[in-house]
């Protein structure tokens, strides 16, 4: 009977509670993978362009061919200079993979002749949707 009223020792009654963080780490990694996979990667032209302002603006698809034209008439795609002569072959190659709009990002001080030459080369390569980009500040 003495056993029935025996008290537990202090070490038995003080159970240490621990937090298992293994599931938390798994959730963080799953969220990290989710955000990496769902991120849209935008390919820039590789040059800084001072864009003119426009009264109207149209949202375009994210998958597009971006071509930059500097104030000196230099033409860039993907960070490298392709020149006006390289626009047709570059656009034709990219359109074979997937039909996309072509966006020409021209500097504010670019001569109109340079911009129109790039636009003509893109159309001759088979592009049906060619736009000159502008920005509202």
User: Which H/E pattern describes the elements?
Assistant: HHEEEHEHE
Instruction: Please mark out the parts with pLDDT under 50 across 5 or more consecutive residues, or reply none.
Output: none
**What share of residues is helical?**
25-40%
What is the number of helices?
4
**Strand order, sheet with most strands:** 3-2-1-4-5
The computed structural class is: alpha/beta
In one word, what is the shape? elongated
Radius of gyration: 30 Å
- Characterize the main sheet: 5 strands, mixed
Head-to-tail CA distance between termini: 88 Å
Question: Which topology of one domain does CATH recognise?
Answer: Nucleotidyltransferase, domain 5
**What is the CATH architecture assignment of one domain?**
2-Layer Sandwich
Mean pLDDT: 78
Number of strands: 5
CATH class of one domain: Alpha Beta
Note the beta-strand portion: 5-15%
């Amino acid at each position: 009977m003495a056993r029935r009223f025996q008290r537990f020792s202090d070490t038995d009654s003080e159970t240490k509670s621990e937090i298992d963080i293994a599931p938390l780490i798994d959730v963080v990694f799953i969220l990290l993978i989710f955000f990496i996979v769902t991120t849209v990667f935008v390919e820039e032209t590789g040059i800084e362009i001072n864009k003119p302002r426009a009264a109207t603006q149209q949202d375009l698809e994210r998958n597009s061919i971006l071509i930059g034209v500097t104030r000196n008439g230099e033409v860039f795609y993907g960070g490298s200079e392709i020149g006006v002569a390289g626009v047709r072959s570059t656009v034709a190659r990219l359109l074979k993979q997937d039909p996309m709009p072509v966006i020409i990002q021209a500097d504010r001080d670019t001569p109109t002749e340079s911009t129109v030459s790039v636009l003509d080369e893109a159309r001759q390569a088979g592009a049906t949707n060619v736009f000159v980009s502008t920005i509202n500040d």
